[in-house]
TrEMBL record:
This is DUF112 domain-containing protein. The chain crosses the membrane at residues 18-38, 50-70, 109-135, 141-160, 203-222, 262-284, 326-347, 359-382, 394-411, 423-448, 468-495. InterPro entries: DUF112_TM. Residues 19-443 form the DUF112 domain. It holds the Pfam family TctA. Keywords: Membrane, Transmembrane, Transmembrane helix. The keyword Transmembrane helix applies. It comes from Metabacillus litoralis.
Amino acid sequence: MDISLYTAGIEQVLRFDVLALIFIGVLLGIVTGSLPGLSAMMGVSILIPISYGLSPAAGILMLIGVYLGAVYGGSISATLVNIPGTPSAVMTTLDAYPLAKKGQAGRALGISTISSACGGLLSVFTLVLIAPVVANLALEFTSFEMFAIALFGLSIMSLISPGSLTTGLVSGCLGLLIAMIGADPMTAQSRFTFGSMHLFSGVQFIAAMVGLYGVTEVILNIEERFKKSKKNVDIANIKFDKKIPSVWLDIKKLWGVITRSSIIGVIIGAIPGAGGTIASIVSYGQQKKISKKPEEMGKGSVEGIAAAESSNNACTGGAMTTLLSLGIPGDAVTAILIGAFMIHGIQPGPEMFQENIDLVSAIFIGMFIANIFILVIGLGGAKYFAKLLTIPESILNSTILAFCFIGSFAVQNSFFDVQTMLVFAILGYLMVKVNIPRAPLVLALILGPLMEMNLRRSLSIVQDDLGAFAFAFVERPIAGVILLLTFITLIMPIFKMINGLGKQAENSQPKEL
């Protein structure tokens, strides 16, 4: 084992400026996650342009801090106002809010904070152990395996995204079409650029993400405000108990729950496109099955809070494992993080463990420190973050919008990027209105070029012989198994739909007297 993988980044991380940026990133992430209507994707998208002026380690670790902080921050509004700040905190509302209504908001926030930090730390240990092994294995992969992995990632994201399989596939296909804009990777022939040199290198990813998640969310927030005349959140009736020390007694009894749920979170997080929401649902359901007091679940159970929060935070380590070792994002946020790597001239994947070992080491150490910051900030200031929920939306939306415009322009000092941002903002708004998920589009923008390049390479190896191309997957067991899993993933919903229609037809038949 190469010990430098775990020590090479110490000098880059243990500096005041880098530690301060990680702390600021976590703090901003918690703020973003705790405010309903914002998201980790929005926070990371908006701050990527700022990271451009920093060193690769400092900029990427700041964004990872935002990512980790936002996942935890969703539990604050879930606990206090029964509104998950992030989608992954939806299961937290079931028990944290009932506990807060009993006058034990401090206890609920304490358990969610410690469970989140523990889940995150356990996932970092898994990342440190598993990622180098997977990366070494991936170095042996050919273009056939990489094509199969990229295709599998797209199929999983389309299957599990909100809405139907059809809308997920539509979003993914739209992303693939957009990913084809620019120069052909093999021949450099211009495609879909309409004569614009700005599009020759493809759509500017950062501007697209800022528009798709930043500006779109602001538009939706403003629209909701006008439609429902929504009032500012009132937290006056929530009482904070002074029993934080007793939380540690709860945690002693919850180690089994936290460990089991964290393992589930890491595994699900490593599946491209799965994410914290699915992890928290699976962990919560599993805990309810094995709990000695299942009747308390949903009524203020500390087991429910610990299961949901440890699993969704553990997803971050799983998603980063896939990102660093294979160059494939585990979720929409890590897809956006790839953009941060790219603007620093770094391509995530197995080669990183050889060419940028100091950065990989810095990420390992930085993620560990970020989770410690979550624990410190969460226990020390969770109830103060509650006051953020009272900020007028007009101030919040205008501030976010300003950052979106400045950030999109700053990456390349280009007004064309601002126009790109606005186009994707309109696209994102329309997608929300017709219930088409945005996450598959984001993943397709990242995986599309990877999939196309490896498909073209594979076809050139077999001299464009489709029969030989298909037989190559039989000769390569790993690629063949992944392709088979992709096929099963896509046909499963069809069988379920047919089965559902059959049962519906049986139920509609008149019963014999």
